[in-house]
Specification:
The structure holds 2 protein chains of 2 kinds.
Chain A (H helix, E strand, L loop, with lengths): L2 H19 L3 H21 L3 H25 L12 H26 L13 H9 L3 H22 L2 H4 L2
Helix pairs in contact in A: 1-2, 2-3
Chain B lengths: L3 H21 L3 H25 L7 H31 L13
The chains are: A mainly alpha, B mainly alpha.
């Protein structure tokens, strides 16, 4: 538990919280980028450099920008920036607090029984590539197929009705 | 104290924030964002258990997290594509007003 962890965790939680409570949708997406970048810092701090970079590229880069594009694409329609009714809000927040309480209780109780880990290890890109192209080559191919299908599907879905037949 | 605790608590907090967002916000875009936060919390758990687990040299946690990121990217693309199509039809992104199939 180091100082750098607390800084990165603070950015992550602050960004995520802001993304969920701010009124302006664009501000929400910008806060989301901060949260994802903070999480990438946590990954780097854990020694998973490649996952941290993937987090920055995919989440802070692609997913957040995609969300911003969708907000702008649906500019003409009415955006729901109003908060939920006070009752709904209270129920949702209460449920989330309850879930966090149960998870935190399980973590604190459970981790105390685990042995303290011995030596840190690093996830070098070489080792990741080796595992990806040997043990995980089938999931890799399936993931590639899934991404191709998903991107074609997303374009077809977002197309206007008239263009689809052309 | 086991260093794993801090990471797992951070992941639990992130998951709860995402859950609260999905439950309280009425904008479909922000509900998708909340789901992304929950997926990120799961990824953080995978990486933390890989790092402090019994056999980090096998890279299982890292690979799981990488595939999870890939699937989440596909999910975000399809989800937002559906959202654009729905918003064009019903002229709103408020999930409370998407009630055409309400019984």
């Amino acid at each position: 538990m180091s100082f750098s962890f607390f800084v990165a965790a603070g950015f992550t939680v602050a960004g995520a919280l802001a993304a969920m409570v701010l009124r302006n949708l664009i501000h929400c997406v910008l806060a989301l980028v901060v949260g994802f970048a903070g999480l990438a810092a946590v990954y780097l701090q854990l020694g998973a450099q490649f996952v941290g970079l993937a987090q920055i590229f995919v989440y802070a880069g692609a997913v957040a920008i995609l969300a911003a594009f969708v907000i702008l694409l649906t500019q003409g329609v009415e955006h729901s920036t109003r908060p939920a009714a006070a009752m709904d809000w209270a129920v949702g927040a209460l449920l989330a607090c309850g879930v966090f309480a149960v998870l935190a209780w399980a973590v604190v109780r459970g981790v105390a029984r685990l042995p303290i880990p011995a030596q840190p290890s690093d996830a070098g890109v070489h080792a990741i590539g080796d595992a990806m192209l040997h043990r995980f080559v089938l999931p890799l191919e399936v993931a590639g197929l899934l991404l191709t299908v998903a991107l074609i599907g997303a374009v077809l879905l977002a197309m206007r009705d008239g263009e689809a037949g052309a | 104290m086991n260093p794993l605790t801090g990471y797992l608590l951070l992941a639990a907090l992130l998951f709860s924030i995402g859950l609260a967002g999905v439950l309280t916000r009425r904008s479909a875009i922000l509900m998708l964002v909340g789901m992304e936060l929950m997926l990120n919390a799961a990824n953080l758990n995978l990486i933390a258990f890989w790092r402090y687990g019994p056999n980090p040299a096998r890279m299982t946690g890292v690979l799981f997290a990488l595939f999870s990121i890939g699937v989440a990217a596909a999910e975000a693309a399809v989800g937002l594509g559906i959202l654009v199509a729905v918003a064009r039809r019903v002229r709103t992104t408020d999930v409370d007003q998407m009630n055409a199939m309400r019984g």
